[in-house]
Amino acid sequence: MIECLTGKVINIEPETVVVDVHGVGYLVYCGNPYKFGEWMDKSITIYTYQHVREDAIRLYGFFHREERRLFEKLLQVSGIGPKGALAIVAAEQPELVIQAIENEDESFLVKFPGVGKKTARQMILDLKGKVAELVPSLTESNERVSDVVNRHTTSLPKELDEALEALRALGYVEREIKKVQPILEKQELTTDEYIKLALKEMLKS
């Protein structure tokens, strides 16, 4: 298994980033690729999970090992694949996800794309009592990332459009996106921040 990649981010798409490691470009799937925007053409370490299927081998990337650990825990649940697990990790609200699991709150868990009542129940059965220890480290990791994100942008239409494409790539449908789009349009944020705000709004009761 590839533990991590250290190199330069040379391209960002709604689902992926490309990391150049000594002249070899690795395609890495991410929940929020634009989170890596501040590291374009700069050296960064991305922690990876290698997922192997009969028809494909994919690398999934994360800012921190703790995010990858939560991703791996979610993959253990029947009915949750890599795309669904990425959508949950990308919301960057692990404490709410884990609280929902511990409190058996199915109504919160079904807000994620691809998670129905049956899958939510399975998450609770499989993970209750097994993921609570991840909360402090995940929260600290996300705070460290937030400290270095640039809060200013001069190309709002492009940033917002990228964010909407990233939400679609995560599996959110147009009906869900249109509910939060008016809120996003009132802001002047980076792509990463638009995505974070949209995910936060989608998870509200």
Automatic annotation (TrEMBL):
<comment type="function">
    <text>The RuvA-RuvB-RuvC complex processes Holliday junction (HJ) DNA during genetic recombination and DNA repair, while the RuvA-RuvB complex plays an important role in the rescue of blocked DNA replication forks via replication fork reversal (RFR). RuvA specifically binds to HJ cruciform DNA, conferring on it an open structure. The RuvB hexamer acts as an ATP-dependent pump, pulling dsDNA into and through the RuvAB complex. HJ branch migration allows RuvC to scan DNA until it finds its consensus sequence, where it cleaves and resolves the cruciform DNA.</text>
</comment>
<dbReference type="GO" id="GO:0048476">
    <property type="term" value="C:Holliday junction resolvase complex"/>
</dbReference>
<keyword id="KW-0238">DNA-binding</keyword>
<dbReference type="GO" id="GO:0000400">
    <property type="term" value="F:four-way junction DNA binding"/>
</dbReference>
<dbReference type="GO" id="GO:0016787">
    <property type="term" value="F:hydrolase activity"/>
</dbReference>
<feature type="region of interest" description="Domain III">
    <location>
        <begin position="149"/>
        <end position="205"/>
    </location>
</feature>
<dbReference type="InterPro" id="IPR003583">
    <property type="entry name" value="Hlx-hairpin-Hlx_DNA-bd_motif"/>
</dbReference>
<protein>
    <recommendedName>
        <fullName>Holliday junction branch migration complex subunit RuvA</fullName>
    </recommendedName>
</protein>
<dbReference type="Pfam" id="PF07499">
    <property type="entry name" value="RuvA_C"/>
</dbReference>
<keyword id="KW-0233">DNA recombination</keyword>
<comment type="subunit">
    <text>Homotetramer. Forms an RuvA(8)-RuvB(12)-Holliday junction (HJ) complex. HJ DNA is sandwiched between 2 RuvA tetramers; dsDNA enters through RuvA and exits via RuvB. An RuvB hexamer assembles on each DNA strand where it exits the tetramer. Each RuvB hexamer is contacted by two RuvA subunits (via domain III) on 2 adjacent RuvB subunits; this complex drives branch migration. In the full resolvosome a probable DNA-RuvA(4)-RuvB(12)-RuvC(2) complex forms which resolves the HJ.</text>
</comment>
<dbReference type="GO" id="GO:0005737">
    <property type="term" value="C:cytoplasm"/>
</dbReference>
<keyword id="KW-0378">Hydrolase</keyword>
<keyword id="KW-0227">DNA damage</keyword>
<comment type="similarity">
    <text>Belongs to the RuvA family.</text>
</comment>
<dbReference type="GO" id="GO:0005524">
    <property type="term" value="F:ATP binding"/>
</dbReference>
<dbReference type="InterPro" id="IPR000085">
    <property type="entry name" value="RuvA"/>
</dbReference>
<dbReference type="GO" id="GO:0009378">
    <property type="term" value="F:four-way junction helicase activity"/>
</dbReference>
<dbReference type="InterPro" id="IPR036267">
    <property type="entry name" value="RuvA_C_sf"/>
</dbReference>
<dbReference type="InterPro" id="IPR012340">
    <property type="entry name" value="NA-bd_OB-fold"/>
</dbReference>
<keyword id="KW-0963">Cytoplasm</keyword>
<feature type="domain" description="Helix-hairpin-helix DNA-binding motif class 1">
    <location>
        <begin position="72"/>
        <end position="91"/>
    </location>
</feature>
<keyword id="KW-0234">DNA repair</keyword>
<dbReference type="GO" id="GO:0006310">
    <property type="term" value="P:DNA recombination"/>
</dbReference>
<dbReference type="GO" id="GO:0009379">
    <property type="term" value="C:Holliday junction helicase complex"/>
</dbReference>
<dbReference type="Pfam" id="PF14520">
    <property type="entry name" value="HHH_5"/>
</dbReference>
<dbReference type="GO" id="GO:0006281">
    <property type="term" value="P:DNA repair"/>
</dbReference>
<dbReference type="InterPro" id="IPR011114">
    <property type="entry name" value="RuvA_C"/>
</dbReference>
<dbReference type="Pfam" id="PF01330">
    <property type="entry name" value="RuvA_N"/>
</dbReference>
<dbReference type="InterPro" id="IPR010994">
    <property type="entry name" value="RuvA_2-like"/>
</dbReference>
<dbReference type="InterPro" id="IPR013849">
    <property type="entry name" value="DNA_helicase_Holl-junc_RuvA_I"/>
</dbReference>
<feature type="domain" description="Helix-hairpin-helix DNA-binding motif class 1">
    <location>
        <begin position="107"/>
        <end position="126"/>
    </location>
</feature>
